[in-house]
Please model this.
Amino acid sequence: MTAHYPGPAMQEQSSDQFLVLDAAQMRTPEEFEAVGLDMTAVLEMTRTDIPAERALRNAVYGDEAAGILDTLKDDDHYRRIITTHSRHLTYLDTLLATNRALAWCPLSGRAVRADESALIDTYHIAYGFSGEERFYLIVGRWHGRKCALFLPSRKLIVLINAPEKSTAMTGMIIKSMEWLAHYKDIHPDASQSRTLSEGNGFVLTMATTANLGHQIWQDLSGLELMIDQGLADKINRIIVCNNAKFDIGALFPELPPGTVRNVGDSRNMRDAAYREHGTIIHPVGYQISQSLRERIWRVSRAEVGPVRAAEIDEAAKDRKLIWINLRSHNKSWINQIDGHVAVLEALQKEFGNIGVVYDGWTDTLEVRDAIDAKLSPDILRFNTVGCQLSESILWANVVSAYISVIGSGLVINSWLSSTPGVAHSDHVHLLQATAWPSVAPDAIPPIFLTKDQIESGVNIYSNYDFDWQHLLEPLSEILRNASSVR
Model:
């Protein structure tokens, strides 16, 4: 597949054109030779398996590779966590072992090591190489996979591994790489400090986007992996922005004071990262460990304070609390008002000691109030709509069951708690049900409504509907099987 997209240069009037190739759609040597590319080298760069990375390490380091090859260990861990997009990042293993990204030059086929790294936008990091011509390996997005090879002198982009291949993503890479070239021209001092070597440590970029699940699943678990591997003293700086959901320094007291720097607006991150000394990486983990969950619980309880934490614990005594995750801006259960009321009333009739914990963004206040007005007065109410994340995490760990939308709300319920419950969503997000439990293997897997139980549009974030009675049976079963009231 070949396409031409306009390159949004630093000057709006630019009419430069970039040739965009998708390696997955190129079948013959002639297609590669037509643009001067080495077919074998490009196809090798699309691979993510351990033998391919081991071959690249051997080609670059030769006899020196023996000391680092054992950091590539093929075990069942990675196969367990593979989702639609998540993969074992063998290039990141190499980065952590050597401070350098490696690549096959797409023109000569020679193995080379990176001499530059840059955060180019909140989605991507570029690693620069001096091959036959200057080229860059672009990695990133939430999963951290290899996205593209960028050859600036040829105005050529080759998409190589990451599944997102929209023109918008390609345009972002073009614009961001033009920013990098412009930045290096006007800040040669900063550019000089970016020269990489094997012992220069790391600059981590975290919380580049506001997604709660990915901050925990990738960023925090990736940082924990680095610390577990004894790399805490090699972290020169962690750059975050106002998207950060957690105090990373509090979560990881192993880090020296001052390691974490919040630069405010996310648009400040790439400039801040470029001026730091060290190889820029986005830490990417694969599973949320029990130890990470315990770190988050500890910090959350400290942030809430002992008085409020005791009040939350007390609320769960002698009653069964049901957490209901409300949503209104998109991906909403159409009949969530009457549906939640019906479920709660049915559970109250069966068990007699039901309380409800309202959860959601502040845009769900009207939904909460409508449910509240219809509930029987003997159902106790506890409101957490719009409360701080740390308090929500404490509530999630004292409720008896939950009803949540697949998304950030379910992250708190399932990945960060030890509570059973039921999850629902539009058909597109429902596809996450297969892999969701593997992300936090020590947690209790949610019970997911099935596609045939839900009426949904075909687009992602569609509103949807279902019969509330699909929730009742699994919730009743959860409460009946509870060994004790929390």
Q: What stands out?
A: The first strand starts at residue 2 and ends at 6. Residues 167-186 form the longest helix (20 residues). Confidence is low (pLDDT under 50) at residues 1-15. DSSP finds 20 helices and 21 strands in the chain.
